[in-house]
Amino acid sequence: RKEVEQDPGPFNVPEGATVAFNCTYSNSASQSFFWYRQDCRKEPKLLMSVYSSGNEDGRFTAQLNRASQYISLLIRDSKLSDSATYLCAVNKDFQKLVFGTGTRLLVSP
Amino acid sequence: EADIYQTPRYLVIGTGKKITLECSQTMGHDKMYWYQQDPGMELHLIHYSYGVNSTEKGDLSSESTVSRIRTEHFPLTLESARPSHTSQYLCASSEFGGRPNNEQFFGPGTRLTVL
What is the pLDDT of residues A19-39, one digit of tens each? Predict the structure, then answer.
């Protein structure tokens, strides 16, 4: 089993839709969780950290479910510019993060 | 915006050449990382460092080597490039903070093609 797993997608949604992605992790001791956005042939950019209580940044909401060992990202009112690959990252130990393969989102007019 | 730089951004080189990919950050971060990523594929950690004079191999075996003589600088070297080394190489850094692992910030990457 992979340490971090994501549905590769693509998720095809119309503008204005709400879309959610999940990311499961295998290490129950993990304590740090992040969502990154990666555009085609570009570097990953930090979208948001995921806190235990859940957190929101504008149209983006991240949540952590420790019992089921997954994190989620909800995007409301999707924009064309949200089209990208969304990577989750989970700490492996005190030194490293493990990244998922990413979920591809395509927002269409 | 993260202040982490990589040069060159693109490199096309012949088999057998020695190459060094540069990575510098101005944030004073102790931890630095090198990842390899093929198109549409996941990031693979190939090297990391948690401070000056410390280097460790990552989860993916790589023929490259790294050095960390200065906090801000973490170059990656391939002694003899081969076509199998063709990939995108991404450098990242993070603080050595109180949490188990802080967020990593990435440089723009070097796209390497070995002919």
Answer: 999 999 999 988 889 999 999
Q: Which of A97, A98, A103 to mutate to test the interface with B (most CBs of B within 10 A)?
A: A97
- Distance in angstroms (rounded) separating the CA atoms of residues B85 and B114: 7
**Rounded Cα–Cα distance for residues B74 and B72 (Å):** 7
Minimal C-alpha gap between B43 and chain A (Å): 6
Report the pLDDT value the prediction gives residue B83, as an integer from 0 to 100. Answer: 96
Which residue, chain included where needed, has tokens 């149209």?
A59
Residue carrying the six token digits 């093929």: B38
CB A43 within 8 A of CB B2: no
Contact A91 B100 (CB under 8 A): yes
Q: Are B35 and B60 in contact (CB under 8 A)?
A: no
Q: What's the token pair of residue B9?
A: 């951004």
Instruction: Supply the DSSP symbol for B72.
Output: T
Contact A97 B101 (CB under 8 A): yes
Per DSSP (E only), the strands in chain B are 4-7, 10-13, 19-25, 31-37, 44-51, 54-57, 65-66, 76-78, 87-94, 105-106, 110-114
Task: Say which amino acid occupies A12.
Answer: N
Query: How far apart, in Å, are the Cα atoms of B111 and each of A15, B38, B68, B88?
Result: 32, 10, 22, 4
